[in-house]
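User: Continuing from earlier, I have the next pair ready.

Assistant: Great, send them over.

User: Here they are, in order.

Assistant: Folding the first of the pair now:
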Amino acid sequence: MSESPATRLPDGLPVIHRETVRPEWIDYNGHMNVAYFVLAFDYAVDALWASLGIDDAYRERTGCSTFAVESHVTYQREMKRGEEMLFSVQLLGYDEKRIHHFYRMYHATEGYLAATCEWLNLHVDLAVRKVTPMPEAVRSRLAALDTEHSALPTPAEAGRGITGAGRSRVARAGGGAGA
């Protein structure tokens, strides 16, 4: 991981990635645009992959990579131009083909939680574009991380869906509650 293990965030986890809000990431509201939150989280995912050995050399050597198949972002507070972000990662689960992981983005100087992002990735053979088991070396690194994270509570934001105000058109369209 990119920081000293002594560098801990409010969630008790080490910093896996740091990033600064770039001028081109600012939108017409004067804060970091939602698309760039996802990009910043994706850079943190790359840091996790590097720590697991799933990097460029791995892709070249094995012909395998990961594909994101689901993600969910919660926006807690704004980030503005030039502010530094610190990221932590918590492994929520894995099996031979899937990795379920959760990130927190903190404001580096004020310490507040700015956003969270939950991901599900699949391990894919790029030649045939099909899901395939991860090699034992990667699963062994995941097992070690899982052991480190096993006593951590599940983040409150993990597994959440979107709940709207009042009656949802999605529920009405399906004939469910509120139809």
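And the other member of the pair:
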Amino acid sequence: MNTDAVPPIPQTGLDEEPALPENYPSHHTRDLEIKGHQVRFRPIHPGDNHRMVMLFDTFSMETIYHRFFSYVRMPPERVKRFTHVDYALQMALVAEEERHGQQHIMGVARYAREKDNPAQGEMAIVVGDRWQGRGIGTELLKYLFEVAEKEGVAMLYGLVHFDNRAAPRIIRKSGIKFKKKDNGTEWRFEVFPGQTQEPEAG
């Protein structure tokens, strides 16, 4: 497969929407180089509907299951739930690259703070299969933790399937302090933005 080919814009049934909400936190945008590739991290926005569908189309069944814990589809109403965030209780950051004049989302990391305790919340991350193994997930997760700390989040937790080896690896590579608990069917990782993980004994 030629991964450099420009994919067609999918027919999603999604209406065009304003690209940037008034409260869009553009100050959380960062440009960086990862293993020789220029990447931009930025908050998601409603104008990303089609790009999110294109990202979902790159997922293998394994990636879908590890991210959603079931084999889901991506209808328009679900897409909008992912691209419409309030940037206060919810934050989502995308990793984006430009190819052939088009912007492509390679991965998404997000958190949702608890209403009753906004200092903590749930996190999730996913990277499209064609971009996995390039260090994007590690750097994107590290940036999510950095943004979370700036926004006053003290603890984030995420559930990870026992057979998902990538997620625990990038959490460890982030260098952020974490705790791991066995929930019986999956791991529960708790991370503490702004705190550094102590080296493992031995």
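Worth noting for the second one:
The longest strand covers residues 102-113. Confidence is low (pLDDT under 50) at residues 1-12.
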